Amino acid sequence: MSGEPFIKVENVHFLYNAESSNPIAALKGINLEIQKGEYLVIIGHNGSGKTTLAKHFNALLLPTKGDVWVKGMNTKDRSLVRDIRQTVGMVFQIPDNQIVATIVEEDVAFGPENLGVPPDEIRRRVDWALEVVGMLSYRNRAPHLLSAGQKQRVAIAGVMAMKPECIVLDESTAYLDPVGRKEVLDVVKKLNKEEGITVLCCLHILSLARRYGTRIIALKDGKLVFDGLPEEIDERKFKEIYGEEAEKVEII
Ligand code: ADP
To answer: How far is the CA of 189 from the centre of ligand 1 (A)?
Structure first.
């Protein structure tokens, strides 16, 4: 075992439209070390940089300045992008955008097929992934007929079938009602606790961040303004961090 963190973010700055006359600084010097097995929740108001940071964890975005390492692999190294994306899977906000097939199990098989996994191994992975998200009995259904929470669980199964060590959820529950949201967050918690999957989850609801995370970081205007345990960030601390902007983040 080397002592290196699972993910290391070192002095990361990110500019949108870097080459233009008015670039937007979305991340301003982020430093972060994430250990294997953590359930890290990223909170912050709209525009604080959560999505931008999340996209750095699997090389969807590359730092304008600074570095991100995933298991020692620098995300700027183009030859490692495939390995990095296989290690860190991404679940997006809107499941409809991720569902590609007309039958649930074919959808889940899509990722491993693309990776060139042999058919019998794909079958095992699909069964396992659907079981783990509680959707095995829906395997022959049409995804577009499922509820939003069920679709999101199928999308998570699709990512899990690629056997990542870590999943990133970018506000993947923002479009769900409270029941669907709980359904998805409970599945993700189970993956973290029972399968040892490292979870990095952007959420904008403090109470959920505290309930599900093992660690919380807070972003404000592209900077890291809090990094600690869920019990260390109560409503008062939260208001202290965000001041007037606290109202832009849901607390309950
Ligand atoms: P969050 O996920 O916390 O809402 P984002 O990472 O989406 O925050 O946004 C951080 C900042 O970057 C905001 O000022 C936002 O307007 C800007 N931004 C995000 N995406 C783009 C983009 N594609 N082009 C230009 N600016 C962007």
So the answer is: 27
Q: Residue 115 C-alpha to ligand 1 middle, in angstroms? A: 31
Torsion of CA 234, 240, 245, 251, to 10 degrees: 10
pLDDT per residue as tens, the chain (252 positions): 457 899 999 999 999 999 999 999 999 999 999 999 999 999 998 899 999 999 999 999 999 999 999 999 999 999 999 999 999 999 987 767 778 889 999 999 999 999 899 999 999 999 999 999 999 999 999 999 999 889 999 999 999 999 999 999 987 666 788 888 888 899 999 999 999 999 999 988 889 999 999 999 999 999 999 999 999 998 888 888 888 777 766 654
Asked if residues 125 and 107 have their Cβ atoms less than 8 Å apart, the reply is no
The candidate with the shortest Cα–Cα distance to 173, out of 41, 62, 13, is 41
Q: Other C-beta atoms within 10 Å of 113: how many? A: 14
46 lines ligand 1 (CB under 6 A): yes
The Cα-based distances of 114 to 158, 161, 162, 213 in angstroms read 12, 11, 9, 32
Angle between helices 104-114 and 119-132 (to 10 degrees): 130
Q: 148-160 vs 178-195: helix axis angle to the nearest 10?
A: 20
Q: How far is the CA of 3 from the centre of ligand 1 (A)?
A: 33
* Ligand 1 atom 15: residue of nearest CA: 47
pTM: 0.93
* Cα 26 to ligand 1 centre (Å): 6
Altogether, the residues listed in the chain come to a count of 252
